[in-house]
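Notebook entry, structure prediction.
Reason for the run: the old model in the group folder had no record of what sequence produced it. Starting over properly, with the input documented here first.
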Amino acid sequence: MDTIAVLDFGSQTAQLIGRRIRECGVYAEILSGTDPIPEHLIDQVKGVVLSGSPSSVHEDGSPRVHPSVLSLGVPVLGICYGLQQIVHEAGGRVSRAERREYGRSRLQLHQEHALFNGVPDGFVSWMSHGDSLAELPQGFVMLAESEHGLPAAVRNAESSIVGIQFHPEVSHCEYGTHILRNFAVDICHAAQAWSMEQYVDTARETIRTTAGSESVLVLISGGVDSTVVAALILSALPGSQVHLMYVDTGLMRAGETEEVTKTLEQLGAEHIHVIDAQDRFYAELAGKPDPEEKRRIIGDLFISIQQEELAKRQIGEGFLAQGTLYTDMIESGKGVGTYAKVIKSHHNVRSPLVQKKRDEGLLIEPLSWLYKDEVRELGRVLGLPEHVVGRHPFPGPGLAVRILGAVSPERVRVLQAADRIYIDELRKRRLYDEIWQAFCVLLPVSSVGVAGDDRAYGGVVALRAVVSVDGMTADVYPFESRDILEISARITNEVPEVGRVVYDVSSKPPATIEWE
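New structure, fully documented this time:
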C-alpha cells in the first residue's frame, strides 16, 4: 500500500501527523527518525515527513535523520524541528530566536507552491518553537513568513524538499489537514486507499498471529478504550480463548461497576471476571500523595491482582491486552524513537510490571497507534452502541488522579457524589456530547464558608470541561454563566463536605487535561 513515512524525533504530535494523513485516506506509518526506512517499506513509501522534536539542532546528541532517507528520491516535508534539520544540514543557519513563537500566527504567502494550493493568504497557523531560521541555505527560497517576520515555509528550488515552521497537524491550525493532503496526495501522488475498516482487518490478523492459541486476558477499566479492545479481540479470537477482567479498585465513578458488567455481558464474552479489590487499593494508596507514585502503585497492583487471579482461576499465563492509546505512549516518553520526553507516566505504560510484559512480548496493544476519536470510530465499525463509544475519557487510575493528595475511601465518596451531579447536569442540559471531557477534581485544601448562619469549613471541588479533537490540544468549554452557577449550587447544596466550587479555565497546553 502507498505509504507516507512519518519520522519520529520525539515530538508530542508525530503520530498526530500520521493520523491527519490517514484522515485523507492515505496510509501513514510512524518510524524512528534516526534509522533508515525498513527494507520492506522502501517500495511503498511515496513521501517522508520529518516531525518536530523537543530537541534543538545545536544540542549534542540531538536526533538526526538518517542520510539514506533524503536520498530515496521521494518528496520530503520537514515540520518545525524537521525543517530546522533540513536547513542546518544544507548549510543554512538556525539560531535561538529573539522572539519565540508559540500559538496562533497568521502567515503571509510569498510564492505559489502545491503545498498551499487552496490555502488563502493570511491563514492562521499554530507555532511552537524557540529556534528559528536565521539564514537559508543556497538553493532554498522562502514560501511564507509569520506575522512576526520569521520564515514559516521554505523549499529547495532544485528538489522536492519543502519545510514549514508551523504545525499543520494540530486542530488549531487553519487548513492544516488540507496542507497535509496537498503533500500526500498532490505532491507525493499517494493512493487514497486507507480506511478504518481496513485497519480492523489488519488488527485482527495481527492479534491472531500474535496470540496463536494462547489465552488472552483483557484488562477492562470501563472506559471506551478497553471496551473497544475487548470487542476487537473478541471479533478476532474464539470466545473460549479470551478472558475479560474488570478490577473494581474503588476508584471508579458511582455505579461504574454495574454499568461495566452489563456492557461486557452484551459483548458476548464467555469469560468475565469481576474482582473486588477496593480494600487493597485503598491500603496501598494510603498516605501516598505523589501522583507518579499513585500511578505506579495502581499499575503494579493491577498486574499483581491479574496474575493472582490467573493462577486462582487456572488460566494460562498467556498474553495481556489493554487499551493503550498513542497519547498514553507519547506522554509517557514511549514514542517510536528514544527522544520523547516524559510528560506524565501512564500506569498502563511505565509501570514496571507492564514494562516487563512488554519486554517479554506478552503485551497486545492494538490501539497504541490511534487517538481517542479514531478509537471511537473503530468502536462504531465494530458495532458498539453510541452510549459506549461516546463516553468521555476516564483515566486508568480512576479517581486517584482526580483526588489531589492522598486517597481515602471518604475522599473518594465525596468526589463520586460531586462528579455524579456534574455529569448528570451536563446530560440534563444536553451539554455532555458538546464536551470532549468533563470531570471534578477534589483539591487538598479547605475553604471557609457560611452554612445557614454558622461558620463552615468545607472542601473545594474544581470543575473541568474541555473541547478537543484528539486530546493532544484542548480548549476550555465556554459554559453559559447560568449553567456553571446552577451546577455549582447543586454540588454545594447536595454534598455537605464541599463548601466551594471553582472552574478550571486552563487550556492544553500549557496545562494537561487531567490535573495529575
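Summary: The mean pLDDT is 88.
The old model has been moved to the deprecated folder.
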